[in-house]
Design a protein that fits this description.
This protein is mainly alpha-helical. It has 6 helices and no strands.
Length: about 190
Amino acid sequence: MRTSYVNKIYIFLFIILIMGIFCGIKLVNLIDIDDVIYTINSIINNSNNMHINYIFSHLLIISILFLLSFFIASIPLYIIYVFYNGISLGFIIRIYINILGLKGFIYSMFYIMLTKFIYIIFLLILLKTLIKISILIFKYIITNNKDIIYNNIKLYKKALLCITLIFLNDLFIFYCGNNLLHLISFLT
């Protein structure tokens, strides 16, 4: 029963992510693509002088999500954040395909694998854990059973481990991501 419940949370979050990817792909059709193409081309051309830095934004967002886990109303915000990440993934894929064709698809897949894939995996694990924490806190409010709070400690440790791994991934991307993207720069 317990694994079925956990699997349902993962499946639900994954479906929301896939829906976001499809919406991100469709979103490209609704915007003025010339401005975006100019911006993407300038990013590709100036990538030698840039570092990919998600450290501050990820820590800020994840800290807010962690603090929101104390409220049952946080669950819809988790879903919205997963959907937003799906939209950004779909948008990245479609823009690179529009700019570079098949080479753009390969480049976008490598870019996503480098910058977003590990983050998304740990984010889904973190959000599943935070959803369980929110539900347990809601059960504690209803039943006033103190054992529920003591069972949360393991979940908090798991959440902090995910946050640490996301931070380490962001540090790796900051220091090594640019060099790895240069390895496939022949596609651009």
